[in-house]
Amino acid sequence: MISRLKEDIACVFERDPAAQSVFEVITTYPGVHAVMIHRLSHYCWQHGLNWLARFIAHLGRWLTGVEIHPGAQIGRRFFIDHGMGVVIGETAVIGDDCTLYHGVTLGGTTWKKGKRHPTLHNGVVVGAGAKILGPIDIGAGARVGSNSVVLKPVPAGATVVGIPGHVIDSKVKKSTVVLDDVASKMDFDPYGLSADMPDPVAYAINRMLDHINSLDKQVETMQHALNNAGINCQETPLGTLDGCEIKDSYATKPKGKN
Length: 258
Fold this sequence. Notes:
Elements: H1 2-15, H2 22-28, H3 30-46, H4 50-64, E1 67-68, E2 73-74, E3 79-80, E4 87-88, E5 93-94, E6 99-100, E7 105-107, E8 119-120, E9 125-126, E10 131-133, E11 137-138, E12 143-144, E13 149-150, E14 159-161, E15 166-169, H5 179-183, H6 200-228
Parallel strand pairs: 1-4, 2-5, 3-6, 4-7, 5-8, 6-9, 7-10, 8-11, 9-12, 10-13, 12-14
Antiparallel strand pairs: 14-15
Helix pairs in contact: 3-4
């Protein structure tokens, strides 16, 4: 229990540059308090003290603004930044080195008993306000952008944004994400996304416009070839697509794409 507490405190310094001292973290970080209280309530839950476990969790919600069901399984070095409004359901499973920001919900989509909440594998980052719903798997090292609503499984190493969530980076990591990767902030963006994150819908429309423009040029070339061959092919001027490109000030096309 003490070793887990030390790890939970140490991971704060790795992921929050505002942290100044161990005393500050222990006394003023509601996310750390919520995890500490959950460790205790989960222990009671596992030993059949269900009412006591729920009461401890209820007190934790009142003190921290974070609601974690005692039945939820949480791994090592779990960090909740800011904390207010986080909800984690009974059958949720969270792996090691995961990070959740405020307003995150790991919820269910059915009232039936059984597995009904998400499973977050190691190293997952979930941005502020995101909702992950249903018994789905979020692969190791995946990132969920702020305010996204995720209803389908997410592959390891991918980034998901939007409502409903769209995978915009399916890059697969070869090995499980470990604490050193998170600590060094390699391929890590706070709140699950960065300023140049592409909009998948705008990108798809742009690709369609590019394709249509290409087809127009090919048709024009064919018309000229037919006319040169003595086959009368009346040319009808086509409108251009200039100025029709969908722009997004927050989006750029993914690297390596045309």
